Amino acid sequence: MTYLGAHLSSSGGFYKMGKAALAIGANTLQCFVRNPRGAKAKAINPTDLGKLRELMAENSFGPIVAHAPYIMNPCSKDEGIRALAAEMMAGDLELLEHLPGNYYNFHPGSHTGQGVETGCRQIADMLTAVVKPEQKTVVLLETMAGKGSEIGGRFEELRAILDLAQCPQDRLGVCLDTCHVSDAGYDITNDLDGVLAEFDRVIGLSRLLAIHVNDSMNPLGARKDRHALIGQGAIGTEAIVRVLTHPALRRLPFVLETPTDDAGHGEEIAMLRERLGEAQSA
Prior knowledge:
Mean pLDDT: 96
Oligomer: single chain
Strand order of the largest sheet: 1-2-3-4-5-6-7-10
Helix content: 25-40%
Low-confidence stretches: none
Number of strands: 10
Number of helices: 9
Distance between the termini: 17 Å
Shape: globular
Largest sheet: 8 strands, parallel, barrel
Structural class: alpha/beta
Order of helices and strands: EHEHEHEHEHEHHEEEHEH
Radius of gyration: 18 Å
């Protein structure tokens, strides 16, 4: 079974979001658990979260992905911003204990002139402080495009963070974003096997637990991070289908973050499921 979904709004509650996922043909989803551009968290509603758990079980959902807010920067040179990042992640992980067995994805952040080595250490320090052995959620570092002082554009940077983090390693993994890795210079369009071999060499494919499925507005190596609709960018539909059907990836949850609304995501999901059916019957 292919777990395919999209980033959805949880503004009406988590159960309503699960119903919205079913309405667009999804069997996984991604959402924010607080304001994506602010620090305000959603109140924990155990009843609502319990209804979502039941809905997921009844409809054979794959793991879902909660996304950290964009403002979270655990490697800022500002100590207050780093402290806020740790506070936000700790709060989000507390909420996610009501949805056990799922993922929490975050952008590693920007080192703001401190250098990659310092930035990686500060990110690892936050994970050491926040990630607990008893938690049921796995925290995912996202591959990034590498723009500016952003950390995560190279697989080696993510590996450094994982190595430095003094917390249970089975609670840490990676989410690969197709737009980001292409913009970072990894050629998934023409050499997907080579990119995955490099990921396996540096990090290990066992640590790859989710995929963000996006086309890119920019050419390979542009380091800009501009998502495009599937088939309307530099990566292309054929390459995306190869990602979804690759033996090393096809059991992972795939989440669309393309620039469209729920109806548009439903159209993309339907198109991709049709292409998956064609690929599997070929």
